[in-house]
Design a protein that fits this description.
alpha/beta, single chain, 3 domains, about 45% helix, Rossmann fold, 6-stranded parallel sheet, 15 helices, 6-stranded mixed sheet, about 425 residues
Length: about 425
């Protein structure tokens, strides 16, 4: 076994057990964490601004002495954008434009049709009124998360986007403010953790309650989102990020090594897996990883992630690799093999699919256009990337004609009485004597 990451062989008798151990979810509830988050939510719900300020002072060492000092309005965001180096601003604007253009294709539209009874049936699609986006802060700042969360909301037509972001010691990356200006964020509150989630869910004197909360965060944020779900909507309770690469040996081994590193550097629990039918190529990738690792600024994090949850997996052929990928349902799936485009339709379970060796995950994280907020922990089996549709509501429209009301009332009456719901039946039966029929 490698000292850097696991080597697995699909032909081994122990492969299924080894794979299960590698991909095991560690999402059991931590009682102490749950209790702590519950207490924070209760405090903010009861104490409003005062509790939010106190918790932000305590947990983020924020120097604010008044709640107003936590709030950043659009003029300050624009000022940060205007102060950027031209090259940095151009890159941020390019990313924002590409993300906006991609998500405009997701806009849902209202529709209706008339049936043979003259009833008008349909669906009305409308945007949510106000949403909250959580942007991580602290160890690192993520302007890309601002763009990926706020732009789809604005494309959907959301009138007000409230962003919360931790600002330890009162410091916030100007790139985050600049990204907020480009994305159309209406207000920033420099508070993070469970207290920020609670403020968005229940509202305070200063922070308005929202309809939905989206965006990644630490385990306190994830648990807080889980607890407030139902009061507000959420995008998902995300786990550690992950990438699965299927390779055939045609791409340089150093590319694959760096692609695995780019995932592993997120945090110590990130998962990076490469599957290939060529054991010699797997050796080359591992050798390249060993050679390049000490050149990485986040070497310790990468090493820990690879040792915890990384693997190089030998399979018999690409068909076997594709079947394994569909079983694992990865967040990010890279297809670094010849003829990859022809196999995309075979890969039915993944958050995002990067086709061809040139299409590395890093491009998708920042500027390709599709959203980088993706289902993790095999939830791609039933979940989708964050998109415009997450910020739109759908209402059914039922407009009965006189003829249609009579016809449907007879059917409804029979079915309602079959369920012993007399009021339902009698309500429908009143339409049988409709004077307009």
């Amino acid at each position: 076994m490698s000292t850097l990451l696991r080597r697995l062989d699909a032909a081994s008798h122990s492969f299924q057990a080894d794979l299960t151990a590698l991909t095991a979810r560690h999402d059991e509830l931590d009682g102490e964490l749950v209790s702590r988050v519950t207490a924070i939510i209760a405090a903010v719900r009861a104490g409003g601004d005062a509790a939010l300020l106190e918790l932000t002072q305590q947990l983020d060492q924020h120097p604010a002495v008044a709640i107003t000092e936590l709030v950043i309005e659009p003029p300050a965001m624009q000022k940060a954008l205007d102060a950027l180096h031209p090259e940095t601003r151009a890159a941020l604007e390019t990313a924002a434009d590409r993300i906006r253009h991609y998500h405009q294709h997701q806009l849902g539209e209202s529709w209706s049709f008339e049936d043979d009874l003259g009833n008008r049936l349909g669906q009305q699609v409308t945007p949510m009124a106000r949403v909250g986006i959580y942007v991580p802060g602290g160890k690192a700042s993520y302007p890309s998360s601002v763009l990926m969360n706020a732009i789809p909301a604005k494309v959907a037509g959301v009138a007000e986007v409230v962003m919360v972001v931790p600002a330890p010691l009162g410091v916030i990356n100007p790139l985050v403010l600049a990204a907020a200006a480009l994305a159309g964020v209406d207000r920033i509150v420099t508070a993070g953790g469970a207290q920020a989630v609670a403020a968005l869910a229940f509202g305070t004197e200063t922070v308005p309650a929202v309809d939905k909360i989206v965006g990644p965060g630490n385990r306190y944020v994830a648990e807080a989102k889980r607890q407030v779900f139902g009061v507000v909507g959420i995008d998902m309770v995300a786990g550690p990020s992950e990438v699965l690469i299927i390779a055939d040996g045609s791409a340089p081994a150093s590319w694959m090594a760096m692609d695995l590193f780019s995932q592993a550097e997120h945090d110590e629990q990130a998962q990076a897996i490469l599957i290939c039918p060529d054991s010699t190529y797997l050796d080359a990738v591992e050798a390249s990883m060993q050679e390049l690792l000490n050149t990485m600024a986040r070497e310790d994090i990468i090493r820990a992630a690879l040792m915890n949850r990384g693997a190089l997996i030998k399979v018999g052929n690409l068909d076997e690799a594709i079947a394994l990928s569909n079983k694992l349902a990865p967040e990010h799936l890279q297809l670094a093999f010849e003829g990859a485009e022809a196999r995309v339709s075979d890969l039915t379970v993944a958050g995002a699919i990067f086709v061809g060796a040139l299409s590395c995950e890093s491009l998708g994280d920042y500027c390709a256009g599709p959203n980088h907020v993706l289902p993790t922990s095999s939830t791609a089996r039933f979940s989708s990337p964050l998109g415009v549709y997450d910020f739109q509501k759908r209402s059914s429209i039922i407009h009965c004609s006189p003829k249609g009301a009579v016809a449907l009332a007879g059917v409804a009456s029979v079915l309602a009485r079959g369920e012993s719901l007399e009021a339902h039946a009698r309500s429908a039966e009143l339409r049988l004597s409709n004077p307009e029929s």
